[in-house]
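Database export, one record per block. Field names are fixed; values are copied verbatim from the stored entry.
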Amino acid sequence: MMEVLPGRCVPIAKRELLWAGSAGLACWLAGVIFIDRKRTGDAISVMSEVAQTLLSQDVRVWVFPEGTRNHNGSMLPFKRGAFHLAVQAQVPIVPIVMSSYQDFYCKKERRFTSGRCQVRVLPPVPTEGLTPDDVPALADRVRHSMLTIFREISTDGRGGGDCLKKPGVSEAGL
């Protein structure tokens, strides 16, 4: 992911990561924006502040719309917070898709070995003129395009399927 991370970009993460020992400290020092997903009012307030920061300080935000890591080899339904944020700030969404990492990461087996995954950056999706009423359809449309690419790059023998091939131009080694 670090290969495609644009300048002046801040990730958004669940607040629980703040308490994950040295990883949480590193996230905090790196300026990660923490969202308390259990307190909806607080999360909405933070997202409103982030929308203002996007515009006033020319910052980009990296959001994982599934909300949590998926361990079944597909994509979970998207949470809509990121889409509300983009619509509120009237900024484009740049979908970034990572192939499956099941060949080298398995939480159940407590396995995290070396491997490769592909990362594909999709064309920006404009949000100019959209309103909060458009968010559900926007989220569905973006998820559908991402899921199509996820399936393609996770089964083509280079990302998530065969970790022995050398990385190409659009792959990131892990």
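Remark 1: The chain has a mean pLDDT of 76.
Remark 2: DSSP finds four helices and eight strands in the chain.
End of record.
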